[in-house]
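Incident log, structure service

09:12 report received: a user says their structure output differs between two submissions of the same chain.
09:20 pulled the input from the user's history:
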Amino acid sequence: MKVTLKPQILGPSRATQFLRELIQTLSTSSSTALVTGESGTGKELVAQALHAQGPRSAGPFVPINCGAIPRDLIESELFGHRKGAFTGAVADRLGRFELAHGGTLFLDEIGDLPMDMQVKLLRVLQERCILPVGGSREVPIDVRVVAATHKNLEAEVAAGRFREDLYYRINVLPITTTALRERPDDVACLLAFYADKHVLPGQRPLKFAPDMLKLLQAYAWPGNVRELSNLVDRFSTLFPSQTLHVHTVPACMMPSGLAVLQAQRLNPVSTVLPVLPTPLAAPVDARPSNPVVQVFAVDEASGAPADPASASPWDESDPLIQFLGGGDEVRSPSDISAMPPMALSASNDEMSTVEEVILLAQGIQMLPPDGISIKQHLIDIERTLIEQALNRTQGNVSQTAKLLQLQRTTLIEKINKYELRGFA
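09:34 re-ran on a clean worker, output below:
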């Protein structure tokens, strides 16, 4: 595999700028590098950049995921095998080390490598020779090895799951990728990049309104850049050519953590004092040290609730009662308990999440809270339908007019009006 395009490590944050400078410095060396960081932070992209900017850029870049290959096949995959070495070995086969000769071998998830293979890999890195499975002669190799893992290898060494000598052998040039939640300044740049990458044919790239951008920057991104890319791909399919606001996307189409942030932005809830019940009223002189606001009393004779005013242990001069009542009017705890609770969920006339998704699937846009220009919206719909029809008929105006049930001359006028000559 040759890296034909220069890998793009995007973002204006200080962490990303430092990473780009570090890669530029380390790429001149052929020593082994170890890239660590959370899943989805672009460890393979870093390995590709080290290869593309280094003296081995003309050679192959060969990746292999050590955790994705069965234990019985990993040796053959790395070192190759000779014909007849085992059942099914009908011909000689080159391993990844030989395929990467003169270039770079990327060992992804090296922390998942079995212990017996760790010993053999250590010898290869020391001797720069491999012995194919079933072979009798060692084969010299000229390869730069870049390893990567999301695990803490020092902790793995301490737990006995990774060889200490191999760790020091591969950790010559350490590189750490930063999680996306620690560099929110990069989010806008990454959103624009992946919106261009995932745009549907015949559509314009997705855009993000300032409120939506702030929401995405506040999100923790547990899946890092990989999660961001997949989310932009989803939005590009559901909302092609649109500008997304916080209210545009239904919660069920967002990751759970992002949906929580969305709900907080759309329905901010004020902080209120708790109203907690106690089983029986206490005498005034036995008032609890940690008082509660609401008190229930029961008439022992009838079993009915007693008069709250007479049952209350609170005195009207109590500072808490004065604070809750406000001004000259003092509210008793029973009055407070009768106050309507603050709404914690959407009002009844708001659409449910399921209804929103159904409308989206049917191509019906929801009415934004601040309203919409019907005239402009109808123009946008007409333009989109004409674009889709022209794409379907490959620019044939007569067939497009039939699809849209328009006169050919009328369609031509609309094509000129909406500047769709490139489609026709």
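09:41 both user submissions now match this output. Likely a transient worker issue. Closing.
09:42 reviewer note: The mean pLDDT is 81. Residues 374-392 form the longest helix (19 residues).
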